[in-house]
Amino acid sequence: YDYHIGQYYDLFARTSKLVDNISEAAERLPEIVKLGLFFRKPEEVRTAMDILSSLPLTLVWQEQTSMEITAPGVSKGSGLISLAEYLHIPLGETAAIGDSINDLPMLQAAGLPIAMGNAREEVLRVCARVTGDNGHNGVGQAAITLLRGRFADTDKS
Predict the structure, then answer these.
(1) 97: helix, coil or strand?
(2) Distance in angstroms (rounded) separating the CA atoms of residues 127 and 114
């Protein structure tokens, strides 16, 4: 609770591994795909980003007191582009659903960007549609709507 992860607390409690020493933990893992760092204060995130900004990494200030680190050029957007190329699907025929800053590259790459109902303002600005929030099956609502062809136009409803 000191790290302000709110709605994600239960998820992180079930799926995350807390470590005291990142370097030692990294040596024991076969491959780190994404690293999430959580801080007690936003100023601590800014300091960490300043320190790490000269390294060849992709840094995203995720939430109020957290950041994500991936390899250079790796983002949800590059993942969507690679997947669409692999499946031979034009990007204009893709849809993406997101709610936070780390979703922006994916939403900007997608043919139809959809915001979760609980999305941050920055996300809402780039999305053509809004679906239900995380607590009310927003992804499921969007998928059903897509399957029924109701997102054919681009107004935000």
Answers:
(1) strand
(2) 5
**Rounded Cα distance, 111 and 94, in Å:** 5
Distance CA 148, CA 137 (A): 17
Give pLDDT tens digits for 121-147: 999 999 999 999 988 899 999 999 888
Contact between 131 and 97 (Cβ < 8 Å): yes
Helix (H) or strand (E) holding 112: strand 112-115
Instruction: State residue 103's pLDDT score.
Output: 94
pLDDT of residue 157: 46
Q: Which tokens go with 151?
A: 């997102």
Number of other CB atoms surrounding residue 84 within 10 Å: 18
52-66 confidence digits (pLDDT tens): 999 999 898 877 888
Report d(CA 42, CA 59) in Å as an integer: 15
CA distance 106 to 136: 22
* Dihedral angle of Cα 80, 82, 88, 92, to the nearest 10 degrees: 40
- Give the C-alpha separation, 5 to 77, whole Å: 24
